[in-house]
Amino acid sequence: MILFFDENCPFCRRAVLFILNRDHNKGLFFAPLGGQTAEEKLAKWRKTHKNVDSLILIEGSEITYNSKALFRVCRHMGGWLKNFGFLAYLPSWLLFPFDMGYRLVASCRHRLCAVSIDEKRAPWNKQYKERFLP
Q1: What is the DSSP string of 57-109?
Q2: Of 25, 31, 59, 81, which residue is the least packed, with the fewest Cβ within 10 Å?
Q3: Which pLDDT tens digit goes with each residue over 99-126?
Q4: Are 23 and 126 in contact (CB under 8 A)?
Q5: Are 19 and 25 spatial neighbours (Cβ–Cβ below 8 Å)?
């Protein structure tokens, strides 16, 4: 599983840190939306999904985004968050309210965290380095 995220967004970077600290299976890899991996894996898909610019998940051959991707990540993490995983399998019309909430947060995500994570002390530079793709 590869989770693509907005590397320029402090809120997104904190969300990645939250996920890293709870992903006990260590089966989730991360890649920036502006990186080489995203270019290679999402080029064709992005032609039909131009407005998706926050969270994209590749699980096998399936690509999900917005709340569905978030719920699938929850299922993967385990613990109490796993309980939200079943929501990823709801039909689109039932996911609509969750997608609206997700889009609302995504639209103001750059303003939600005023302070970014210090790059020199960021955990992805040290203990989680192998879980980040270019």
Answers
A1: EEETTEEEEHHHHHHHHHHHH-GGGGGGGGGGGS-HHHHHHHHHHHHHHHHTH
A2: 25
A3: 888 888 888 877 777 666 666 556 566 7
A4: no
A5: no
Alpha carbon distances (Å) from 43 to 55, 58, 122: 15, 13, 29
Contact 19, 28 (CB under 8 A): yes
Domain segments of the chain as ranges? 2-131
Tell me the two tokens of residue 97.
């309210």
User: How does pLDDT run across 19-40, given as a tens digit for each residue?
Assistant: 988 888 888 999 999 999 999 9
If phi > 0 it is left, if psi is from -120 to 50 it is alpha, else beta; for residue 30 that is beta
End-to-end CA distance of the chain: 15
User: Residue 18 gets which letter from DSSP?
Assistant: H
> Can you tell me the distance from the alpha carbon of 11 to that of 117, in angstroms, rounded to the nearest whole number?
10
- What is the C-alpha to C-alpha distance for residues 83 and 85, in angstroms, rounded to an integer? 5
Q: What are phi and psi of 29, to 5 degrees?
A: -110, 155
